Amino acid sequence: DWSAASFVDTTVAELKAQVGDDRVILGLSGGVDSSVAAVLLNRAIGNNLTCIFVDHGMLRKNEFSDVMHDYECLGLNVIGVDASEKFFADLAGVTDPEQKRKIIGRDFVEVFNAEARKITGAKWLAQGTIYPDRIESLNITGKVIKSHHNVGGLPEEMHLQLCEPLKWLFKDEVRRVGRQLGMPEHLITRHPFPGPGLAVRILGDITREKVRVLQDADDIYIRGLRDYKVRLSGEEARRVLAAGVPAAMTDGEVEVSLYDQIWQAGAVLLSTVRSVGVMGDERTYENPVALRAVTSTDAMTADWAHLPYDFLAKVSNEIINKVRGVNRVCYDISSKPPSTIEWE
Ligand code: XMP
Q: CATH 3.40.50.620: which residues of the chain?
């Protein structure tokens, strides 16, 4: 019978035995998995762990500084690298989704390695890989659907060994471990976010301006999901509580936010599409934004989330009124398969 408390005790002891006094490098992404892996290692070996957090410029609004702040509060030894200039320069004019992913993956490895080389005497590379990540990469047909970007191709001369303390866990177990470690709830319940960031949510080429527009739309959407509370009872309430989501409970009903009810959500900028609109007396000819929200347990399959109409109406109004360059909002009602969660 699996328990987060015994997982933490056993894993911390195992990590101490495995790593000893060696220095360890870990790439942080801001996501749950790498953050939990970092806090576990930090508990085992303290400042012998150095974390690297690369900002490729396509994170969500204020994400780099917010997450850096969280990491510092957790006592992690983190190096934050703003490499956005390089990524934007290398992506300029590139429109093909796979090529965008390849460039981001390659640049990421380059930037990460340059930092890793500065950490002299490091013996290990730690990663927040979880069980479903490993299943998804064991693709039987060998067909690349999307080249997922991960840290790879580390400097040969460093001879790093791989350390993956979460490799047997599922996402809900990782979240329980995070709670057991006392990590803040907003870090633990964060939705998954793709390595290439908003680049796979902007159709066509990437510019700083498009990223800014999408960040603003996405921020309105995500804040709306967090603010909108739903009351659940019966089976639905039990499922939420069983997953360990801390929810206020009254008269057998639990209150959770829409954000905590779904697996993942984000806005997509359809920047290769323009449509006509009207603002005051003026004609507009601008880009639509598509909103995506799915329920899932492991991202291998996913259903579109049936968000309440009043919520969609409010968010749509707010995006169109506040985000310049967007004059239409659509809601994506496709499930995976045959669609994927991300648009690119
Ligand atoms: P798709 O779009 O393939 O996404 O249905 C499945 C899940 O994976 C995330 N995703 C990525 N995660 N690097 C990652 O670490 C990537 O390159 C990447 N691409 C997609 C996606 O957000 C969803 O949770």
A: 4-190
133 lines ligand 1 (CB under 6 A): no
Q: How far is the CA of 124 from the centre of ligand 1 (A)?
A: 26
The finding on whether 132 has its CB within 6 A of some atom of ligand 1 is no
Which parts of the chain fold into alpha helices (H)?
4-19, 32-45, 63-73, 84-91, 97-117, 131-137, 171-180, 185-188, 208-227, 234-242, 258-261, 309-322
Pick the closest to residue 203 from 64, 89, 342 (CA basis): 342
Q: How far apart are CA 337 and CA 232, in angstroms?
A: 28
Question: What ligand 1 atom has the least distance to the C-alpha of 302?
Answer: 5
CATH of domain 4-190: 3.40.50.620
Neighbours of 110 (CB within 10 A): 13
CA distance 211 to 202: 8
What residue type is 237 in one-letter code? Answer: A
* DSSP secondary structure string for all residues of 85-116: HHHHHHHTT---HHHHHHHHHHHHHHHHHHHH
| Alpha carbon nearest to ligand 1 atom 18, residue | 194
For residues 320 and 328, the answer to whether their CB atoms sit within 8 Å is: yes
pLDDT in tens, 89-141: 999 999 999 999 999 999 999 999 999 999 999 999 999 999 888 876 665 55
In ligand 1, the atom with minimum distance to the C-alpha of 105 is 17
C-alpha span between 147 and 340 (Å, rounded): 13
pTM, two decimal places: 0.93
Q: List, by residue range, all CATH 3.30.300.10 domains of the chain.
A: 202-331
Two structure tokens written together for 200: 């796979």
Read off the pLDDT of residues 264-307 as tens digits, 9 standing for 90 and up. 999 999 999 999 999 989 999 999 999 999 999 888 899 999 99
Kindly report the length of the chain: 344
Question: Using H for helix, E for strand and C for coil, what is the string for 240-272?
Answer: HHHCCCCCEEECCEEEEEHHHHCCEEEEEECCC
